[in-house]
Amino acid sequence: MAPQDSSTTVAAPTDLAPGFAGIAEDWSSDQRTFKNVPWGKAMMWIFLLSDTFIFSSFLVGYMKVRLSTTTPWPKASEVFALSFGGEPIPLILIAIMTFILITSSGTMVLAVNYGYRKDKNKTALLLIITALLGASFVGMQAFEWTKLIVEEGVRPWGNPMGASQFGSVFFMITGFHGFHVSVGVLFLILVARKVWRGDYDTEKRGFFTSRKGNYEIVETMGLYWHFVDLVWVFIFAFFYLW
Amino acid sequence: MAHAQGQQHPLSVYIWVWALLFVLSTFSYLVDFYHVEGYLRWTLILIFMFLKAGFIISVFMHIKWERMALSFAILGPPTVLLVLIAMLTIEGDYTFLTRGIFFGTGS
What we know:
heterodimer, A: mainly alpha, Four Helix Bundle (Hemerythrin (Met), subunit A), 0% strand, globular, disordered N terminus, B: 107 residues, mainly alpha, 2 domains, 4 helices, flat
């Protein structure tokens, strides 16, 4: 396929109608619908939309299961309490994990910003910090799983604290989220390496697509990372706090 | 070049939202810490959750600045989930009642 400079297919922003009239015009324009958006970013959004439905199915399934148990649901506040020598502090590990993920979202958004300023070193550094925060999140999750499996005896088919469905719901939802974070960390390291090498300054062609790379990829990467944080907001509210 | 500058916004917007996310997360943690129970608990959890989600989507994910054709294509479809939630609420209640009748452990 002949490589095409994306600027030739995108109309200048001033030609585009704003607001609701813009929706009709963009969708009926007999060419690309999502104007001013690189194809990679549009595709990432479509992927995230499908991922939204996967996580929603898990959470709605959890809601149904929790509604229909006749034995009481285990109290997340007590199950996930952690003691540092003294009285157990409720939900403290989950709170720390939440703050770590929010911090990483902040460093990610700064990376996108410095990327568009073509500040190679700062962008790469912020991406690496984001990856490290993500890795520590997964580490804490591994600790949490180990504690629940080994010390508390939680299994997908039962647990000593209450409704037997608790285990399967917990492993399914947090496991799938943790997998997303892990993939995100790999993705971050990959992009950070390319930024560091200066691939996006020289518009070096990518390995898979052989298209010219530029700093828009950092933003597309950022969308994925913020989505992972977004899913955690819902898991935190519905699974841990409810 | 139409999107040569991409989503370029002042840093202060991001820093403010970042700080706000920390504050909102602290609030939702405090809901649990101070044992707020019942409808007040659920209302507070939902409010903080939707505020956090809204700020992440609109500012961090730049939906606020995207064209409506994209934001409607992304935010529109998930609203059908409300139907799924409604159906499974009914189904969940039904299962609970049936279990109560057959196992005799309904409480």
